[in-house]
Amino acid sequence: MFIFSYICRILNVPMRNLFLLTLLLLGSGAAYSQTSQASLDSLEQQYQECLGSSTNMYDCALNYYKQLDSLLTNTLQQLYTNLDKPQQQQLEQEQAAWEEKKEEYFKKIDERVEKMHKRTMEGLDDEMISTDNKAAFLKQRLTTLLSI
User: Which keywords does the record carry (predicted)?
Assistant: First the structure.
């Protein structure tokens, strides 16, 4: 109790607020999952709006992909810190296996785009579709992680 009152004096906050903050941090795993799901939903909505209002759909897809990748990285870090050692090891193994699948899948997509690009019109349509498929792959993993 002395530590809480000392920290409250230093931070110049009421002890009640510090206690609530501590409870919030202890329960941050579930809260982070809910926040991440809301972020994912928001990203999806922004992406659809961008596709509907933009003439440069490739930029929409690329931005969406980058945002999903960032959210995935942050979710993995947050999840990892909230797991015990055996669960962390299991997550590491699952993530390594997923990364291998991702590399395989992305390679196939890139090869397909390269072949198609020779037969299609100039432009970024093939790259947009490729990036959209890659983003969907990331989104699927993110959704799985948020359900843990």
Answer: Signal
Write out pLDDT tens, residues 117-130: 766 666 678 889 99
> pTM of the full predicted structure?
0.75
CB 132 within 8 A of CB 44: no
Tokens representing 109 are 């997509």
Taking the CB of residue 105, how many other CB atoms lie within 10 A of it?
Answer: 13
Q: Tokens representing 61?
A: 């897809």
Residue type, 51: L
- Cα-based distances in Å from 88 to 28, 42, 85: 17, 28, 5
Q: Are the CB atoms for 65 and 138 separated by under 8 Å? A: yes
Cα–Cα distance for residue pair 132/80, rounded to 1 Å: 27
DSSP state of 114: H
